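Lecture 7 notes: from sequence to structure.

We start with a single chain of 258 residues. Read the sequence below before looking at the structure.
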Amino acid sequence: MTEKPSPVRPSRGGADASRPQKTALLVAKQIVEDIARRGNTVGDRLPPEHLMLAEYGVGRGTLRESLRYLELQGALTLKPGPGGGPIVQQPDAGMLAASLSLLLQFENAPFSTIMEARAAMEPSIARLAAQRMSAEALEELRANVVALRSGSTDTDVFTAESERFHALIAWGSGNALFGYLFDAMLGILAGATMGVEYPKRQRDHTCTIHEEIYAAISGRDPDAAADLMARHITDHTVYLKKRFRAALSQPIRWDLGG
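Now the structure, written as tokens:
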């Protein structure tokens, strides 16, 4: 298989087009293209090794490197033994969270970076959700708002339902990139021990603003949804800066479990 020049190391000044991709990466890209072409879904087995060797025209070592790379990216699982082999999986935001946290660690970026990104993104996400969210997704959001209010006295329930509210809106925006980015940001935060706590007054305030955001989204009011979300993220950031400034200033660290 002929190697083609392709950028592999992005930099602040742009991609380095002078370095060719390794054959194993080119084969990995072709395997993914073939998965899409065949219409494979999660749980499907890929062709046996001898057929893949013939199809891609590479050696066993190169093919196995390609498959290991795709396994690392969450696109495959490699089942050992008879009847095993590569099995198609659904990648999630975990690898994106790990990659972002690694990049941010090298930039010595603090956790406040996440809040700044959320402040920039989430009002626009809420606006899109008000325009696009399906009836099924709206019902999930409604149930989440109810669960947040009823579980607000339990710290773990409150935290989980509060985060899920924002994730549901991100995915309900109809833009998968927003969904994955938000899941990745939550993954980065989940990998940290920041010691952030919310007293009853703050939890009650969060329940109320979530209910108002839900009402704006379900009422198909994009402007109100965006304005309420902007206010919510601003209030949350002010609270964190006032009570947990040290936690926000902590540098992000790479977490493979993101």
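The chain has eleven helices and four strands. Keep this in mind for problem set 3.
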